[in-house]
Amino acid sequence: TRNGGSSGAKKDDAAHLHQFVMHASLDFVDARVWETTNMHLRLVDKFNDLSVYAFVTAGGTRFLLLHDQRIEESNIGVFFHDVHELWLRVSMNPFHTKRTPILDKTFDLRVRECAKSHFP
Amino acid sequence: RERARAARAATMAARSTRVGGRNPELAGQAAWVATEKVNAELFTLTYGALVRQVLHDCEDRVFEANKKLDEMGHAMGCRLIEDFLAKTNARKCLSFKESAETVALVGFKMFLNLECSLENWNDDETRCDVRFEHLDPFVAFVEVPDRYKSGDDEQSKLKYCQVLCGAARGALESVGVRTECHFVKDALVGDPSEGFVMRLEFTENVEDEYPFED
Description:
The complex is a heterodimer of chains A (about 120) and B (about 210). By secondary structure, chain A is α+β, with helices and mostly antiparallel strands. Helix content of chain A is about 45%, strand content about 20%.
């Protein structure tokens, strides 16, 4: 399954571009997965000034981070780690499958809080 | 003389933790300490998979799934009572109140480490509510999807912990007490702040049946 997370304020008209860029970067994610044993894949793709960072869990779930500004790479690692913990709680729910979208509002809220705290 | 004193102290201790004695909470605690433990998350995930599978088998018909979970619980209860009686030095309960206390305060504590309290007894002591501090072994991490908890009818809501109710019912039925058992407050499908409250109601005494025609 794919999970997208984007931080910073995004305009609606740019949202389509962002979604497109993230989907396009999935091929690079698939290629990069074989090159390292880390879950955090760091920078996988750039498009103009948009950069995509990826994190792949042991079960194959991908977290993608799309950013259009310069940010510290070390923060990204910690951010992904925190999101991973939040996601683990959701995935332990017996009714959650790889196909079900995560509609939980508290999950959304917590991910946003993480983003705010790591990328001020 | 030292040895005699020590022996007397040991008997006194054993007597207070004996089921049917004055203190069922203490008996439950002692029984829990003595049982073999299994990883709690393993139990939670296994139970979750069980409920998922039952729902799948019943093709999302919640009423049928609830009934199936209750039946499974009943079968488990009939077997667990033997284990319970063997492991605790339980004496015969003289009233429904004692039976309910034994099931809730000793049985649930011993097998699942569930803290609970009995409240809201009716006048002739045949019905009570069992309020659980938490039902973590069953409900940790669980979020029931909307399709199993929508609808005004109670019957159309998933009774996630019905196996526990079935087990209580099965165990009591095996020792001759027929009861009705279901959750009146279920935080998974109702108001989360109300917690989990199970109602245990005495129906009748079961007569011994001979298994063959006379």
